[in-house]
Amino acid sequence: MNINSDLVVKNKTLEEIENVVTDLETDEYSTNETKTNKVWINGKPIYRRVFAGTMQSNQSQIELGITTNLNIETVVNMYAFALSNDKSGNPFYYWTTDDMFRCRIATGGNIYLMSGTKPLKPFAYNLVIEYTKTV
């Protein structure tokens, strides 16, 4: 087992150490907001939410929703992957001379998944956003 070098186990009971390991092993991904077992550099807990869906072949952009109801203070991490029915796919952010996929949070808090050109075939996506909250 690899343990982050910042994890301090000195003066901890075996039960406390087992609880930390259990927390790390049960890190949940959900389309509902979930409090992770992580803490950001400012001491605030990190939350996670997964957005999942399908981008159709006639779409070059999808608006996933507004983040303002999530009370986001700091985006810690945001990543996505697109996978077509034939199991070919690309990560967001992906760029070639022929195409581009990206995800972004625009002014006002709208989350967008964007394709530089319209997709040639529909694809499923999963976008994970991890953040701290203002409240």
Question: What can you see in these coordinates?
Answer:
- The protein has 135 residues and is mainly beta.
- It contains one helix and nine strands; from the N terminus they run αβββββββββ.
- A five-stranded antiparallel beta sheet has the order 1-2-9-4-5, with no helix packed on it. A four-stranded antiparallel beta sheet has the order 3-8-7-6, with no helix packed on it.
- It is elongated.
Can you summarize this structure?
By secondary structure, the protein is mainly beta. The protein is 9% helix and 48% strand.
What number is the mean pLDDT? Answer: 76
What is the radius of gyration computed over CA atoms, rounded to a whole number of angstroms?
A: 18 Å
Name of the CATH first level: Mainly Beta
Distance between the termini: 35 Å
List the uncertain runs.
Answer: none
Total number of strands: 9
Tell me the strand order in the biggest sheet.
1-2-9-4-5
The tally of helices reads: 1
Proportion of residues in extended strands: over 45%
How do the SSEs run, as a string of H and E? HEEEEEEEEE
Helix content: under 10%
Total domain units: 1
* Helix-strand category: mainly beta
CATH architecture level-2 label: Sandwich
Give the overall shape, derived from the CA principal axes. Answer: elongated
Quote the CATH topology: Immunoglobulin-like
Largest sheet: 5 strands, antiparallel
List the helices and strands and how they pair.
Layout: H1 14-25, E1 34-39, E2 45-55, E3 61-66, E4 72-84, E5 89-92, E6 94-95, E7 100-105, E8 110-115, E9 123-133
Antiparallel strand pairs: 1-2, 2-9, 3-8, 4-5, 4-9, 6-7, 7-8
